[in-house]
């Protein structure tokens, strides 16, 4: 696979660093129960038990000794929404609000648990195998996502130095705990970044397939259709600007227009297809005729539905309100009814701590958009569709402010604005961290431009330049040096801006790991 090419030492370093960071995350997570036991009084004082009102279905099967061990070591990765994914993988979409979580990730967990972990079925019950599957899959997807981000950065930024640093920062992402836990963020990041990379390489149909798979993982994958639309529009606009002259050239232009339009329609249809199919499945399951489902549901799960007010698939003829809507979309109904998600609904005084939690990523995303607009005002006004005149005989600008970054800045800004005003704002960090490369590209840009330890006058303008500035490091004969590790080892001498950027990434990684694994609210 091209992602793990053996001929690129920087790519090997990216994957190796991602694997090490994931291993460290799992080790720290596994050590938390031991620390809780050894320092219980101190931990109860600093991190008191939190009575989380989260989805927590009863365990029906009696756990064996190996199940207890798996739960003790990895149980912290099954908190909050992870319970939904594990429950869906084990029992399907039993409750109505489970339909807020898309099926591709839990299907992958079940497939791995039943296939690769099948020999352990006598030692581990299904839930334990699903939890192990989540750890294995997310470790794989997070490493592949880092590699895909590096390749994407090389093509878009035209600077291997910045792309390398950004991919390393992804491995210490502030949303790192969600990349390790039984959440769909790692899988989505891999599919989204890979689709963007293939689109930049001109592989339109492969990128469309990957975008389609991503929309089967998370709902915000629908927004990725904008990349395909912009690519089609840009291609046609450049043909118009380059085709001056005779009328006889108009016919090929019309052919190109039809080709671009048909390609855009097909790609968008592919992106929206998984969403539409899943909504249809939910409609058939929860709005169709009764099937006496309650007789097949274990009594503890039925009791949970009664206690919590969860709606089961219609078995008594009573249908949910959304079933009678003109366009019955269960996803929007669940967000509105179960979690009170909507425009400005989170703007309450008691939510100020959550806004403070989202403040760093909101400021970083806003700063990135402002920096790009100031550096490319005309390019932004023309929506990136105008052919840029080359500056003399020089090569195109490289780095974060290069023209190709425009569509990614727009994508990140749309997600940022929507998440800030219409979602539970504390999820903004993982929302952007798993969906957009801008968070990592702009952070790498800030470090590269303002940190003397990393600053260099040399520029890399090709996505595969053999003379990378990083090759000038002492370790260039083998594995290239790791600039993130270098900055951390020299933390006392780096600039305040570098301390803020790295402090944000590392503090959210470690603090999120402690709080999330102890069932405390986090991003």
Structure, explained:
α4 crosses α5 and α10 packs parallel to α12. The protein has a domain of 135 residues. The radius of gyration is 24 Å and the shape is globular. With 523 residues, it is mainly alpha-helical. 40% of the residues are buried. The chain contains 21 helices and no strands. The protein is 60% helix and 0% strand. About 6% of the residues have low confidence. This is GPI mannosyltransferase 2. Pfam families: Mannosyl_trans2. Mannosyltransferase involved in glycosylphosphatidylinositol-anchor biosynthesis. GO terms for molecular function: alpha-1,6-mannosyltransferase activity; GPI mannosyltransferase activity.
Distance between the termini: 34 Å
Average pLDDT level: 85
Structural class: mainly alpha
String of helices and strands: HHHHHHHHHHHHHHHHHHHHH
- Percent of residues in beta strands: under 5%
The largest sheet is: none
What's the overall geometry?
A: globular
Q: How many helical stretches?
A: 21
Low-confidence stretches: 244-248, 390-394, 457-478
Characteristic key phrases:
single chain; 523 residues; mainly alpha; 21 helices; 60% helix; 0% strand; globular
Summarize it.
With 523 residues, this protein is mainly alpha-helical. 60% of the residues lie in helices and 0% in strands.
Helices and strands in order, then pairings?
Blueprint: H1 9-38, H2 40-46, H3 65-74, H4 81-91, H5 104-114, H6 126-157, H7 160-171, H8 176-180, H9 185-200, H10 204-215, H11 225-242, H12 250-287, H13 299-308, H14 330-337, H15 352-375, H16 377-381, H17 406-422, H18 428-433, H19 438-450, H20 483-489, H21 496-517
Helix pairs in contact: 1-2, 1-6, 1-7, 1-21, 3-6, 4-5, 4-6, 5-6, 6-7, 6-9, 7-19, 9-10, 10-12, 11-12, 15-17, 15-19
């Amino acid at each position: 696979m091209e992602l793990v090419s053996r001929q690129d030492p920087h790519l090997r370093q990216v994957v190796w660093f991602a694997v090490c960071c994931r291993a460290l995350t799992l080790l720290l997570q596994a050590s938390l129960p031991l620390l809780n036991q050894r320092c219980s009084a101190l931990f109860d004082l600093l991190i008191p038990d939190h009575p989380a009102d989260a989805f927590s279905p009863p365990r029906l099967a009696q756990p064996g000794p190996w199940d207890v061990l798996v739960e003790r070591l990895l149980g912290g990765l099954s908190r909050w929404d992870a319970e939904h994914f594990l429950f869906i993988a084990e029992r399907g979409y039993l409750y109505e609000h489970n339909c807020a979580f898309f099926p591709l990730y839990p299907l992958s967990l079940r497939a791995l648990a039943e296939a690769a972990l099948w020999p352990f079925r006598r030692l581990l019950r299904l839930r334990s195998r699903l939890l192990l599957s989540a750890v294995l899959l997310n470790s794989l997807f997070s490493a592949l996502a880092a590699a895909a981000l590096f390749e994407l950065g090389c093509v878009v930024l035209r600077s291997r130095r910045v792309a390398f640093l950004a991919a390393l920062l992804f491995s210490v992402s502030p949303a790192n705990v969600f990349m390790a836990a039984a959440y769909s963020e790692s899988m989505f990041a891999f599919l989204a970044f890979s689709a963007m990379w293939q689109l930049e390489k001109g592989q339109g149909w492969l990128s469309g397939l990957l975008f389609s798979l991503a929309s089967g993982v998370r709902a915000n994958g629908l927004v990725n259709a904008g990349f395909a639309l912009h690519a089609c529009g840009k291609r046609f606009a450049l043909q118009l600007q380059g085709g001056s002259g005779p009328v006889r050239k108009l016919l090929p232009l019309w052919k190109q227009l039809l080709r671009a339009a048909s390609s855009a329609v097909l790609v968008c249809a592919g992106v929206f297809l998984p969403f539409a199919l899943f909504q249809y499945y939910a409609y058939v399951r929860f709005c169709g005729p009764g099937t006496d489902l309650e007789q097949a549901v274990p009594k503890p799960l039925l009791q949970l539905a009664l206690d919590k007010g969860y709606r089961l698939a219609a078995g008594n003829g009573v249908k949910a309100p959304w079933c009678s809507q003109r366009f019955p979309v269960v996803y929007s109904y669940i967000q509105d009814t179960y979690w009170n998600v909507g425009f400005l609904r989170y703007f309450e005084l008691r939510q100020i701590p959550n806004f403070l939690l989202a403040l760093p990523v909101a400021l970083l995303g806003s700063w990135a958009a402002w920096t790009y607009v100031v550096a490319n005002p005309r390019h932004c006004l023309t929506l990136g569709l105008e052919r840029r005149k080359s500056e003399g005989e020089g090569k195109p600008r490289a780095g974060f402010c290069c023209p190709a970054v425009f569509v990614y800045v727009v994508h990140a800004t749309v997600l940022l604005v929507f998440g800030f005003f219409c979602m539970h704002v504390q999820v903004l960090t993982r929302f952007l961290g798993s969906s957009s490369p801008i968070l990592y590209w702009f952070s790498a840009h800030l470090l590269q431009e303002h940190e003397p330890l990393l600053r260099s006058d040399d520029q890399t303008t090709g996505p595969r330049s053999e003379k990378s500035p990083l090759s000038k490091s002492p370790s260039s004969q083998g594995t290239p040096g790791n600039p993130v590790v270098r900055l951390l080892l020299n933390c006392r001498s780096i600039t305040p801006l570098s301390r803020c950027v790295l402090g944000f990434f590392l503090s959210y990684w470690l603090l999120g790991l402690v709080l999330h694994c102890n069932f405390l609210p986090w991003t």
